[in-house]
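so my prof wants the structure for this chain in the tokens format not the other one, which i didnt know existed until like an hour ago. anyway here's the sequence
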Amino acid sequence: TVFTALYGLSDTTFFDAPTFTKENLIGEGYFKGFPVDPRAIVTGVTVPGFFSLSMRNRKLGPQIGRQYHADLAHTMGRHNFKFGGEIILQPWSNAQITDLLIFSNRPTADLNNLGTTGSALASFMMGVMDSSQLVDSSFTLQSQIWGFYAQDSWKITDRLTINYGVRFDYSRAPVFSTSFPSTWNFESGKYIVGAKQFPACAQSAPPCLPDPNNPYNNQYVVFTGSSQLRSNQTLPGPRLGLAYRLGDRTVLRGSYGIFYDLMAGVNQQAQNGNANWPVTSGGQLNFNATTVQTTADAPFGGATFPAPATPATINSNMYSPNFKSPYSQQWN
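here's what i got, hopefully its the right format
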């Protein structure tokens, strides 16, 4: 009789902040109107034909894998019995907020000659952007994989051995501890949100609904009340094999089995876990198309963008008192 126990741990964290400085430009007030948030140190700026600064500032991870595995083998006569199981726990965290300002030729062009006048760089220097965007897509979840098996290697004769057994894989759908998932259900034609129905925005900070009694929401949106959008799955995997010794140097072998690659699926689920709607996000398109409506000092048309209730480190006052942007100076 042999008992084996194994434990494994993996831990990875990926930072993606393609910036040209270590300074926190948003925190220092260079991008007025965007929230002061530890997850974002600079705003993405796109000036077509001149330069583009990535809007992506994110921390992926820690993605931790904890694996517990045990086997028990026992030989009795012509039988070699084996039993075992494993549990894999995989937490996943994504800390991400994206800010973006896009400039184009139009705000500085002659409206009667849009194709040949205007400059995206001039629009940038004057702070008259074409569009702005802010998206908070942070989330934390955990996936689990459980597996159990039992098998027997039965040496029926000195020449013939049969191996038979079964394995059960149990895949537990991701459970979110922060945020929630949301996606379309193409079978029902409805949009499903892995959370309880949110209150009215007049009563709560985002995520919230401007009108919880909107007829469209009632007809086409389903709030599941749980972050598990899919049901847990138990997957049976039968195994059957044989080995027959034809001679001293020749063995005939055959086998059949069903196997499941759950690990790849769990990792993919983690990458696509962020909520799509409703989230703490917003944007404005087609600014300054015919007249100057607002500048980059007020990237959402002068409206105070609602700050998320969590995490607590987010500054609820989204307008930094230490504003140093050159936009207002150029415009004035």
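also thought this was worth mentioning. The radius of gyration is 29 Å.
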